[in-house]
C-alpha cells in the first residue's frame, strides 16, 4: 500500500493542508465554490486510509441527508479506485465487472458502513435510539427507544387536538401553526411553560403557555419527540449523565461539520459537549488523536430565522484554540480559489456581497475563464417571466449538445413563485422537479401507512392511532372515537390500552365494538412479527391486510390510482433503505422517513430541470442558473426591508443564488406580478442596483433609469375617495406623501387597510398594508397603487 494518498493530488495546497491536518481544532473559512465540502469529504477519506482511524470513530455532519449519502458514495468510490490500484496495479474500470462489484462491496463494509454521516437531526435520532431510556425531563417524563418522531404536521395535529379538544377553543383564533411556532420558539430559548407564562402580558400568550405545557405532556404520552426535542434532548442528556457523554465522546474522536455558519446554539452545544467531554471549550487541551473540523462561509449564513448564529463560526478559533500555542496558524485554513463559477459570475457575487457591513472580506480567485456575460431580463409579468425562462432553457438545451435538463435550475425566494414556471414547463413538455414541494413523505396515503407502521413499533403513538382508526373506513364514527378518547383520559391510559381491552371496548365502543376489536387484533398481529420481518415486507403486509389498497382499488379514480402508485413507491423506498443500510429495521426506516428533508428529494438520476427556493439550493451547483423575481418586497422579502440585519441576510441569500451558477447566470424580474392572489405593479429589487452593469448583457434597472408613472397628487387622491370609478388614469406629479405606520388607506380593490411598514423614503418608498380577512398583508408602491389616504 502506498504511503502518499494519490487522491490528495486532486486538491490545492490549502485544501491539502486542511485535509492532512490530523489532531486539534481546525476552521476552514472560504467563499462559495472554493472546495470546502470537497475538503471535508477528502479529509474523512484521509483519516481512515492514511491515519488508520476506525470509521466508527468519525462523525460528519452534513446539511442534508442527500449530502450525507453523496459523501459516503464518494468515499466508497475514492477507496475503491485506490484499492484497485494498490492490489491489482490497475484502475478500477480495468477490472472485470464482477470483481469491481465485489471490491466495492468489500470497500463499503470495511471503510464506509460504520461511518456516522448525516444531518444534526438524523445523528441525534440515532444517538437517542441508543440512550433515550436513560433520560428524564424536569417534569419526570420518560421515553422508550421505540419513540416516534413527529414531523411538523404531526406536531400541529397534536397542538390542534389540544386547542380544540382539551381547551375547547377556536382553531381560527389559535391557529395550530402559529401556536406551534410560538411553542417551538420558547423551547429553543430554553423556557419551560411556567417561565414562558410569566413573560405573557395578555390572554393569548397565557393560552399558548397552557397549550405548551399540555403539548409536552402529550408528546411524552405518545412516546414521541418533535424536531426541537431531537436536538435538545441529547444536549440535556449529555449534561445530565456523564457516563453517557463519556461514551459518545470516546467514540467520536473526529468530528467534522459542513456549513458551520448555519449552526445554532443547541447544535453548537452538542458539538462542544462531544468534543470536550463537557469541559469548557476554552480550557480544553486534550487533542491527542482527536479533532474538531468545521467549514463554512459567513457570507452564506441564511438561517437566522431558525436561530442559526454565524458568530459561532467567527468565535471558533478563540473558542477551541485558546489552549494551543500558535493558534493562528494551527487552527485556520483559508481557501481562496473558486473552482465552480466563471469569473463574471464570481465578480457579480463579490460586487453584491460587498454591500453587507457584517462580514469579513476575503479573497476568492477565479480559476476558470471569464465566461459569458450575465443576462438580465425584465418581463411584463410573472407569466412572461416564466415564458422567457423556459424559452431560454429549451433553446439552450437544443443548441448545446452537452447541456441536459438537469443542468438548469430556477431559483426563487418563495415557494409560491413556482406555479407560473410549472405551468409553462408543463405546456412545453419540459421535465422538471420541484425540490421542497410537498415531500413524498407528506402525502396523505404515505403518511397513513407510516402511521400504521408507527403504531406497530410504538403503540403509545395516539396521534398515529387516531389517524388510522377509521382509515380506510371501518364504521368507527367520531362520537365513538370521542367516547374512547375520554375514557382513556379518565382511566389515565393510552388510547391503545383501551382498544386492546375487550371489556372496555364493549363498554365504550357501542355498535363499533367488533370493528374496533378486529382492528386492534390486526395491529397486534403485525406487532408480533415486526422484529422478524424486513421493513419492506411489513409495509407490504400493512398496505394489503389493512384494506387500504383494496379501498383505493374500489374507488377506481385516477387520483386513487396515483395514490396506489405512491404506496408502491413507499415499498420501494423501504427496499432501497434495506439495500443501503445494514441496520434497516422498521424503526430506523421510520426515522429516516420522518427526517427526509426538502432538499433530499432532488433526484440526481432523473434528467429534469430543478425548481427550488434559494434556501434549498445551498451547497448545490448547476451549469445554468435562473435567479428570478428580483423585486422589492419579494426579494428582498418585505419583512426584511426595514431591518438592516434582515436585509443583509437577504443579500447573503442572493449571494448564495448567484454562486450556484457554474457557466451561465440569468437574472429576471417583472413589471407586475400576481402573487398571493392580487396583481401588483412591481419595483425592481435594490440588489439589481448593486450589480455592475459592465458584466451584464441587457439593461440593469439602475435607480434613475427607471420609467415610472408620475406620483399621485393629493387632489386626485381625494377625488378618487369620493368616486373611485371616475379617477383619472394619469395623475399629475406632486411631492411624495410621507406615509406613516398606523395610517389608514383605501385601496380600490382591497378596501380599507392600515399601514404596517414603510420602506425607504422619497421616490423609492414602498409600504406594507394590512387589509382585513383573507386579503392580508400587501406590499405596495404608493406611487402606482390605486391608494387613497383616509
Ligand atoms: P459552497 O460554499 O457552495 O458549499 P464549497 O466551498 O463547498 O461550496 P465544493 O462544492 O466543495 O465547494 O466545490 C465546488 C466545485 O469545485 C465542485 O464541483 C468541486 O468538485 C470543485 N473543486 C473543489 N476543489 C477543487 C480542486 N482542487 N480542483 C478542481 N475542482 C475542485
Ligand atoms: Mg459546500
Automatic annotation (TrEMBL):
Task: Show where the UvrD-like helicase ATP-binding domain sits.
Answer: 9-342
- Recorded E.C. number(s)? 5.6.2.4
| Positions with biased composition (Low complexity) | 713-723
Class of the enzyme per the UniProt entry, highest EC level:
isomerase
Q: Which InterPro entries match?
A: ATP-dep_DNA_helicase_PcrA (IPR005751), DExx_box_DNA_helicase_dom_sf (IPR013986), DNA_helicase_UvrD-like_C (IPR014017), DNA_helicase_UvrD/REP (IPR000212), P-loop_NTPase (IPR027417), UvrD-like_ATP-bd (IPR014016)
Q: Where is the composition biased (Pro residues)?
A: 726-735
Residues engaged in binding ATP: 30-37
Please give the catalytic activity noted in the UniProt record. Couples ATP hydrolysis with the unwinding of duplex DNA by translocating in the 3'-5' direction; ATP + H2O = ADP + phosphate + H(+)
Q: What Gene3D superfamilies is this protein classified in?
A: 1.10.10.160, P-loop containing nucleotide triphosphate hydrolases, PCRA, domain 4
Q: Which GO terms describe its biological process?
A: DNA replication; recombinational repair; response to radiation
Q: Name one Pfam family in it.
A: UvrD-helicase
Q: From what superkingdom does this record's organism come?
A: Bacteria
Q: Which UniProt keywords apply?
A: ATP-binding, DNA-binding, Helicase, Hydrolase, Isomerase, Nucleotide-binding
Which parts of the sequence are annotated with region: Disordered? 701-738
State one molecular function term (GO).
DNA binding
GO terms under cellular component: cytosol; DNA helicase complex
Per its UniProt record, what CDD domains does this chain match?
DEXQc_UvrD, SF1_C_UvrD
Domain UvrD-like helicase C-terminal span(s) in chain numbering: 343-619
PANTHER family (alphabetical): ATP-DEPENDENT DNA HELICASE SRS2, UVRD / RECB / PCRA DNA HELICASE FAMILY MEMBER
What is the similarity comment for this entry?
Belongs to the helicase family. UvrD subfamily.
The protein depicted here goes by the name: ATP-dependent DNA helicase
Amino acid at each position: 500500500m502506498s504511503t502518499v494518498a494519490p487522491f490528495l493530488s486532486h486538491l490545492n495546497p490549502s485544501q491539502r493542508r486542511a485535509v492532512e491536518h490530523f489532531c486539534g481544532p481546525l476552521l476552514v473559512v472560504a467563499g462559495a465554490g472554493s472546495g470546502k465540502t470537497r475538503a471535508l469529504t477528502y479529509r474523512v477519506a484521509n483519516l481512515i486510509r492514511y491515519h488508520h482511524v476506525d470509521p466508527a470513530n468519525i462523525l460528519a455532519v452534513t446539511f442534508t441527508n442527500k449530502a450525507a449519502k453523496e459523501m459516503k458514495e464518494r468515499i466508497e468510490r475514492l477507496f475503491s479506485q485506490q484499492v484497485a490500484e494498490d492490489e491489482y496495479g490497475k484502475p478500477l474500470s480495468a477490472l472485470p465487472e464482477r470483481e469491481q462489484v465485489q471490491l466495492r462491496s468489500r470497500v463499503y463494509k470495511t471503510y464506509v458502513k460504520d461511518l456516522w454521516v448525516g444531518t444534526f437531526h438524523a445523528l441525534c435520532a440515532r444517538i437517542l435510539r441508543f440512550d433515550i431510556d436513560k433520560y428524564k425531563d424536569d417534569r419526570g417524563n420518560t421515553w422508550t427507544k421505540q419513540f416516534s418522531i413527529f414531523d411538523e404536521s404531526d406536531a400541529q395535529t397534536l397542538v390542534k387536538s389540544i386547542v380544540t379538544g382539551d381547551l375547547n377553543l377556536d382553531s381560527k383564533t389559535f391557529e395550530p401553526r402559529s401556536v406551534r411556532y410560538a411553542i417551538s420558539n420558547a423551547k429553543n430559548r430554553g423556557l419551560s411553560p411556567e417561565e414562558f407564562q410569566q413573560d405573557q402580558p395578555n390572554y393569548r400568550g397565557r393560552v399558548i403557555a397552557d397549550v405548551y405545557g399540555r403539548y409536552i405532556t402529550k408528546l411524552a404520552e405518545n412516546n414521541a419527540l418533535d424536531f426541537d426535542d431531537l436536538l435538545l434532548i441529547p444536549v440535556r442528556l449529555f449534561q445530565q449523565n456523564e457516563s453517557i457523554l463519556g461514551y459518545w465522546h470516546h467514540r467520536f474522536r473526529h468530528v467534522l461539520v459542513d456549513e458551520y455558519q448555519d449552526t445554532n446554539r443547541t447544535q453548537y452545544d452538542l458539538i462542544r459537549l462531544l468534543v470536550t467531554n463537557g469541559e469548557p471549550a476554552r480550557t480544553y487541551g486534550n487533542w491527542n488523536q482527536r479533532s474538531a473540523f468545521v467549514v463554512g462561509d459567513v457570507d452564506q449564513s441564511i438561517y437566522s430565522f431558525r436561530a442559526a448564529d454565524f458568530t459561532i463560526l467567527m468565535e471558533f478559533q478563540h473558542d477551541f484554540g485558546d489552549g494551543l500555542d500558535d493558534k493562528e496558524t494551527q487552527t485556520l485554513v483559508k481557501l481562496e480559489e473558486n473552482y465552480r463559477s466563471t469569473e463574471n459570475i464570481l465578480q457579480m457575487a463579490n460586487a453584491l456581497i460587498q454591500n453587507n457591513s457584517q462580514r469579513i472580506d476575503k479573497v476568492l480567485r477565479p480559476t476558470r475563464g471569464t465566461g459569458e456575460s450575465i443576462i438580465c431580463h425584465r418581463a411584463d409579468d410573472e407569466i412572461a417571466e416564466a415564458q422567457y425562462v423556459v424559452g431560454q432553457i429549451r433553446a439552450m438545451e437544443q443548441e448545446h449538445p452537452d447541456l441536459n435538463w438537469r443542468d438548469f435550475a430556477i431559483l426563487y425566494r418563495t415557494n409560491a413563485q413556482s406555479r407560473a414556471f410549472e405551468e409553462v414547463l408543463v405546456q412545453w413538455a419540459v421535465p422538471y422537479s420541484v425540490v421542497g414541494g410537498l415531500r413524498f413523505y407528506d402525502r396523505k396515503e404515505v403518511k397513513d401507512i407510516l402511521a400504521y407502521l408507527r403504531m406497530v413499533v410504538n403503540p403509545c403513538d395516539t396521534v398515529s392511532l387516531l389517524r388510522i382508526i377509521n382509515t380506510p373506513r371501518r364504521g368507527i364514527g367520531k362520537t365513538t372515537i370521542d367516547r374512547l378518547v375520554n375514557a382513556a383520559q379518565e382511566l389515565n391510559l393510552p388510547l391503545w390500552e383501551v382498544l386492546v381491552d375487550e371489556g372496555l371496548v364493549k363498554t365504550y365502543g357501542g355498535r363499533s365494538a367488533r370493528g374496533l376489536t378486529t382492528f386492534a387484533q390486526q395491529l397486534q398481529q403485525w406487532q408480533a412479527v415486526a422484529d422478524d420481518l424486513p421493513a419492506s415486507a411489513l409495509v407490504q403486509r400493512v398496505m394489503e391486510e389493512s384494506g387500504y389498497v383494496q379501498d383505493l382499488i374500489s374507488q377506481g379514480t385516477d387520483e386513487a390510482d396515483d395514490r396506489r402508485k405512491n404506496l408502491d413507491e413507499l415499498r420501494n423506498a423501504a427496499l432501497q433503505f434495506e439495500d443501503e443500510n445494514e441496520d434497516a429495521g422498521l424503526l430506523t426506516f421510520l426515522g429516516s422517513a420522518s427526517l427526509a428533508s426538502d432538499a433530499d428529494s432532488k433526484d440526481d438520476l432523473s434528467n429534469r430541470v430543478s425548481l427550488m427556493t434559494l434556501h434549498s439550493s445551498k451547497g448545490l451547483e448547476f451549469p445554468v442558473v435562473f435567479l428570478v423575481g428580483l423585486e422589492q418586497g419579494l426579494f428582498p422579502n418585505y419583512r426584511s426591508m426595514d431591518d438592516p440585519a434582515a436585509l443583509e441576510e437577504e443579500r447573503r441569500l442572493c449571494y448564495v443564488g448567484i454562486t450556484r451558477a457554474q457557466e451561465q447566470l440569468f437574472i429576471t424580474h417583472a413589471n407586475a406580478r400576481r402573487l398571493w392572489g392580487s396583481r401588483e405593479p412591481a419595483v425592481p429589487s435594490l440588489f439589481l442596483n448593486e450589480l455592475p452593469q459592465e458584466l451584464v448583457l441587457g439593461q440593469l434597472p439602475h435607480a434613475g433609469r427607471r420609467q415610472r408613472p408620475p406620483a399621485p397628487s393629493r387632489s386626485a387622491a381625494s377625488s378618487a375617495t369620493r368616486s373611485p370609478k371616475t379617477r383619472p388614469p394619469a395623475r399629475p406629479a406632486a411631492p411624495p406623501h410621507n406615509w406613516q405606520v398606523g395610517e389608514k388607506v383605501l385601496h380600490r380593490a382591497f378596501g380599507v387597510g392600515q399601514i404596517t411598514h414603510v420602506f425607504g423614503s422619497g421616490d423609492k418608498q414602498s409600504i406594507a398594508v394590512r387589509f382585513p380577512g383573507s386579503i392580508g398583508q400587501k406590499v405596495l408602491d404608493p406611487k402606482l397603487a390605486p391608494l387613497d389616504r383616509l
